[in-house]
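Batch manifest, entry 17 of 40.
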Amino acid sequence: MGNNTNSGSNIAKRALSENTENANAADLKEKNRLAMLKRSNTATPDVTVSTPQANAMTPMVKSRRALTEVPVNHQRQQLQEKQDRLQVAKVRREHSDLSLAATSRKRNVYRDEDVGEKSVKKAKTALQIQWKDLDHEEKTDICMVTEYTDEIFEHLYRRELETLPTHNYLTDADSAYHLRPSMRAILVDWLVEVHEKFQCYPETLFLTINIMDRFLSKNKVTLSKLQLLAVTSLFIAAKFEEVNLPKLSDYAYITDGAASKQDIKSAEMFMLTSLSFDIGWPNPMNFLRRISKADSYDFQTRCMGKFLLEYAMCSHKFVEIKPSLIAAMSMFVARKIAGRQEPVWDETFQHYSGDIDALHDADFLALCKELVHEIACPQTKLDSLILKFKKPKFGAIYYKVHDWCHEQVENDRLDSLFSL
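Output type: structure tokens
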């Protein structure tokens, strides 16, 4: 019993001593932390309190400095001081003759360049004011895309040269692909009638004629296949231009048994292969609308221009003529018929027609004379086209145009109307 009592007292003493040591270590740790916080707040020199227990039980804490000791980015202030010193140096520096000469030379060169730029700008302005910028008036209309108009028409003027028939196979009797103008007139007149029944856009008819002429200018077609060629050309053009297409069965039905649906599909593939699938042709209606802008979109003149344009596209004499040129011819003759003499063609019309100087271009005036003569005394019959423009739907515009053309031919006024 005595031994057990002694051992129990020894254990209690050791536990008490360990607790005391732990309490002392904790007190030292807390004192060290408070001292470090006090030094950081008062910005006093660092004083390290190191004890074996503290070093063993507390990690190293990096002392923090007061906010006033943190370095500030003085880059802006230094830059300002540097500029001030340079300014003071410039004020105190005495200008030498050499520095004055160099300065005068720089000023002269700068002034010369400025004058040169101003002269170029004045020259450009002088050229631009010769015609009215009508696109600028429509810049708020997002549908007109006026910021791209010039680039679009430059592309169309290049493209129309790539999509013309190789030659006029109708007037060239020596051509291997020669076809009588009367045969083409029958096809075109039938196409005008079918086009009106299908209620297609005018662009569809013009593209149809272009596809047919391009194919016939480099392919020999028998007479029995001409109607198949015409209806297939309309079928391809409608796919390209229309939104609501007629059915394939409608095309076969309109031929009255001359072409089946399979015949049209086979002919379509053969024609597209022959044309290298290149049917993106600049339509003359685009150019007509462009020129009509210079005419303030006059309704009567535009209606006459549409009739003249469609008649020229259907005529065998203008197969190899560019669409932009045919559109300019149509609007020029239409303005002559409407009596627009102030002026009939000025710089604005020249700009919006693709730089066609109608009053000083002998070839252009000769084509206009030929178009008027063809309407007054046609060499081929286009009865469906004439009947179409006699209807009130189109303002019965045929009567006015034909009477004017017939009067000019009878009175022999063409030379005086279309002469330089």
